[in-house]
Amino acid sequence: MMEQRLRKVKKMKTKITIKKKMKRIMFYIFLVLALVLIVLEASHHIRIGDLEIANESFYSWPGNKKQAEEIIHKAKKKGYEIERMEAVYSGFLIVTDNGVALFNAKNKMEQWSYTFPESPVAVETTPLDRESNGEQYIVISFDTEGLLGTRSRTVALDAEHGEVYSDNSSYGSDESPEKRIKLTTSTSIISTPSDNHIESYSLESSEKTWEFHTPDGCDGKFTKKEHPERKVATTEESVIVEYACKDTDTTSIVSLDSEDGSKKWEDSWKGNDLPSLWTMEGFSIPSIDPWNAETAIARNELGERYTAITKTGSDFSIGPWKKTPSLDDYIKKPLENPETTPENVVIGFGGKMTDATTAAIAHELLRKDIIDIDDLAKNDLTIKREGEDWFPETNAGLNATGKGPWTGAHTGIINNEIIDDKIRKK
What phi, psi does 38 have (nearest 5°)? Predict the structure, then answer.
């Protein structure tokens, strides 16, 4: 009897021991699985030195105002303190005081982010022509303290994937991060050491590639970089400079190749009052991007003495005013071949200038209730309205070729004799 009890006790102890071992094995299996998951999750974060980039490659075009507002709401819920937001090649870029985050316009998801918690950053995006193949970079500059003093650091990220394109550092710079990257092209950072001197540095290597000086006796005022007094402007492939020469009483505007600084074209007028330079945006979404040439034209912020020049140096076709001449009563068309210096000069991207300008003008006419959405029925378009913003229901994004419902809707509504009659009766 005693032996049987001992056997039962032994069996129970054996079962308990097996259960403990099984629990221990299951714990280790769970721990291993957890570590694997952590490693897999960490693989989405590319860590290079003190940079951390959460990267999920997902391609999308920029969207409309409603999508932007939804993304802003989602970004704030994630804890981002937003300083500004802008449309870029692959979505909406959220800019904070210490980094950036890119959100996909369609699914509202964060695709990648870059932060540097220990230092405030300056952020610029390289210009993007809508005739471009879509290569765009987010340029971030900040200062760190090193053994040799303050170190200036500039990082360029691929706009679509957030991958590091370049990471350059230097000591001894007395420029603020904002000034260091204020002017960029697709391949370079443009510096203005003085009013008559420009230097170009490679975005990839940070090496100086070329420099430009105004002719003797001519003043460029290159250090004025802000609207409405900007005297140097950049496009994806060009640097636009201007200078006034008192001896000859002329003002010249010159387009320089961003790669080597060679002259592409030059235009001159009588007088020596330098105009303000404006550029078209690769992605212009009315009511989201207030500081661009097409919006300034639509809101009559350029006055009556302005002209528009394509990036090849030819005069801009009067586009929207051709079929809708009454439009000039509300929104002034650019001067054609002015003899004296205009107050403002717009630089754009070839034939796509018409699309971008027409889009902004149509939005402004709708906002002022000069025309209404019902007029769009004549173009067989399905339109939605959100407050003061409106957009085609199918796709509200402008793409890099300038095609798509957004452009088509705006172009159709302005280049229309019926609309011209309606504007004339207002």
Answer: -65, -45
